[in-house]
Amino acid sequence: MTPVNMAENLLMRIGPSNITFLCRSAGPVETGPALAGIARLAGADDRFSRSVRRALNWHFWTDPAPLDLTRHVAILRAPDIVDDTGTAGLMSAVRRMAHAPGRPRWRALILNPAGEGDAGPGAVSGVIFHIDHVIADGLRLARLFAAHAEAPGDGSAPAATPALDQIGPKQIAQAADPAIDADDVGFVTLPLTALRGRGAAGKIARVLDLGGGLLRDPALFDPAARRSDFAMVARLVDLRTRSGWLANAARMVKVPLDTADGGATRGMLPRLPVEWEYEIILRASVLFPDALLRPLAHAKFTEADQVVTVVPARARQGRLFGSEISGIYALPPAIGRPPLALTATSYGRELRFSVIPGEGCLAPAREIAARFGDLARG
Fold first, then answer.
1. pTM
2. Longest Cα separation, the chain
3. What is the DSSP annotation of 239-296?
4. Which of 108, 105, 103, 110 is nearest to 66 (CA)?
5. Which domains does the chain have, with CATH numbers?
6. Containing H/E element for 209?
């Protein structure tokens, strides 16, 4: 067995920590080509075929085992999901799904494929991935998917498509992990040009400015609610990996906010410093019992005004799972409950934000997401 790294061990001990995203197709996906695409991605890195075991306060990767896709892939019939509001509710439910013990910690759901059930032409279709953060951080997952984009004609169905379980929203709800809160989620799509700012740091500063505008709106958030003077921003520390595509090297860094105008006007350097409190928790986590470590880590994320992640998925639209992918919807792990969690995924010429309000929110997530879009376009 191979030991996980420090970040991965922390994620296992404070989890469940799941990354959940939908690759939405331009039309109904076909089951056979979708399964073939999932098989190619799962075969690209052996983390998809390793489970995780614990010894004392550390976790270890087991040796790779033959991968049975029928234990990880199912057909999800949800014909009523026709817009972003329905997609948000479905994604929030999938995000809570528990992973089967003793198996590699991921699953894929083929959503409303052609010829399956009573989904009409307007139903959202595509492939949902639900992956434990221990397998990889979001940026590396995005790089893996971008590198395995298909050319026209790729993604043909296998000679024999195995029978897959068929589930619906009811089964999704029944599989919920009680340790994961049910969050209200909103989505908003913006053109790339909406994030005016110089370089990556400038664009993140713009996101924080917009988030500050939401938090100061008394119709959206309680003005009397607790506020801090910083945000937590995901930063990749090291792009190198020993082997394969997947690893975890992202760190959360503390970004001071200018509380006078809500903007991120201080601390936005091209290379953000690693936040020392996070590093202390990371390095000393092996000394803490789970009963103390999990609430401590969740409290660190909750005390920030905003938790922000920006993932560049692909500069141009492409094909996966035998279909043209029209958009990517991503939800971050449910760690802590900050007033505002913003996750942006760039794909083609668009940015799609997931907006998850927490402490002090007064309005539904879809209204907060719509307001975020108005501020960005203004």
1. 0.90
2. 63
3. ---SSSS----EEEEEEE-BTTTTB--SS--SSPPPPHHHHHHHHHGGGS-HHHHHHH
4. 103
5. 2-174 (3.30.559.10), 186-315+323-377 (3.30.559)
6. helix 199-215
7-36: b or e for each residue (b if 16 or more CB lie within 10 Å)? bbbbbbbbbbbbbbbbbbbeebbbbbbbbb
Q: If DSSP codes are grouped into helix, strand and coil, which group holds residue 368? A: helix
pLDDT tens per residue, range 160-175? 678 899 999 999 999 9
CB 106 within 8 A of CB 48: yes
Rounded to 5 degrees, what angle do the CA atoms 196, 198, 204 make?
70
Of all residues in the chain, the percent with pLDDT exceeding 90 is 49
Condensed to tens digits (0 to 9), the pLDDT of residues 73-90 reads 999 999 999 999 999 999
371-378 long-range contacts, Cβ below 8 Å, gap at least 24? 371/214, 371/217, 371/220, 372/188, 372/210, 372/211, 372/214, 372/342, 373/188, 373/189, 373/190, 375/210, 375/213, 375/214, 376/190, 376/194, 376/195, 376/210, 377/190, 377/194
DSSP state string for 94-146: HHTBPPPTTS-SEEEEEES-TTSTT--TTS--EEEEEEETTT--HHHHHHHHH
Reading the block at residue 214, the tokens are 């939401």
